[in-house]
Amino acid sequence: MPIQDIYPTALRLLGRPVLVVGGGPVAARRAKGLLDAGARVTAVAPLACPALAGLADAGLLTWEPRLYLPSDIDGAWFVQTATGDPAVDAQVSADAEARRIWCVNASDHEASAAWTPAVAVVDDVKIAVNAGGDPRRAMALRDAVATALETGDLPLRRHRVSGTGATTGSVALVGGGPGDTGLITVRGRRLLGQADVVVADRLGPRELLAELAPDVRVIEVGKTPGHHPVPQGGINRILVDEALQGHRVVRLKGGDPYVLGRGGEEAEFCRQHGVEVEVVPGVTSAISVPAAAGIPVTHRGLAKGFSVVTGHEELSEVPARADHTVILLMGVGQLRDSAASLARAGLPQGTPVGIVENGYLPNQRVTIGTLGTIADQAEAAGVANPAVIVIGDVVRVSPFAPPHFKTADYSTTTPNAPRVLTK
């Protein structure tokens, strides 16, 4: 049967009688799909496989344990035949054709009046694929489309609001990771593809914004040190106002929303105003950016724990030991003061320090020195945010630190360092 002779459509079978002729695994699968669609299913077969018998025992369908009779079709809206006997299937199909009832003949797709596609469901989208009567091909295509929808490679965004009247939208706080588009989670990418409005930070996977549909609004609220064009209270208000207008809002943040990212405040404000909010974790730059330079935040024999603080926070409570890793976020501006504070707390001047700028991006740069030298090195090299500063013996593990780094006076800057991530 040429594929151009097929007219794709969808049937609403809720509450309508449907006949399944056959008792094997194929019949059971088809019966299960029809039940999922809300049909009232009657199965006719002398014997039933465990799956079909289980559906009958649970009261989900009616099983007539006998041979098929032409009168079984009377009153049915739809017929599925899967007896495994081509002659019986052909007879059922012919009886249905005579009564102008659509019938799927599992034994002969060429002679069948209807085909059952390969089906998958993603959110409220149902994917149905016909592939010229080749079921394995159809299943492979179905799986590929479903995966693309799940990962956000295909858009799931709604363009028509179902129902009547205004509806409240939603907010998703999505951690975008340190900036590389491959490091956002599958869930985050999927929600971004569904968004009507994106409230975007300066950091995070900015390249993904270019992939949004033209009518998706992007509201820039990015902050730089000492410059907050949209204060946090304004950001909170934007999220709520847009959601109350019925929009799906994604707050795209760098790193993880709950790691020094004000995500907790935003989620709390949304809930206080009756807006549904979802938090999607992200790959925090505190751990991932050091890894981009080959620096583990913990390492057997070097460090058993770590602390993450901003460069604006008091460091006096941080353990002042080279075997406890200290990670400074947004700390370039106060690096000299932070280094002095840690030294006063007892951390040796020779403690290794690594600075990773623009982690995982093409212009990534690594600067390695010691607690006593790093401020001068950073100033001379023009180190700038975004950068993550790692303080502790784990810096020695970095491939950018040569063997003689173990001496206290070692320092080096490696511009345009090769990226650790391989795409």
Number of strands: 18
The major sheet is characterized as: 6 strands, mixed
Computed Rg:
31 Å
Query: Outline, from the CA principal axes?
Result: elongated
Characterize the quaternary organization of these chains: single chain
User: Counting H and I runs of at least 4 residues, what is the number of helices?
Assistant: 10
Q: Approximately how much helix is present in the residues?
A: 25-40%
Stretches with pLDDT under 50, minimum 5 residues: 407-412, 415-423
In percent, how much strand structure appears in the residues?
A: 15-25%
Q: How far apart are the termini? A: 44 Å
Whole-number mean pLDDT:
86
Computed structural class: alpha/beta
Report on this structure.
The protein is an alpha/beta fold. About 25% of the residues lie in helices and about 20% in strands. It has a six-stranded mixed beta sheet with strand order 13-14-17-15-16-18, sandwiched between helices. Strand 1 (about 15-20), helix 1 (about 25-35) and strand 2 (about 40-45) form a beta-alpha-beta unit. Helix 1 (about 25-35) packs parallel to helix 2 and helix 6 (about 230-245) packs across helix 7. The longest helix has 17 residues, at about 135-150. The chain is elongated, with a radius of gyration of 31 Å. About 40% of the residues are buried.
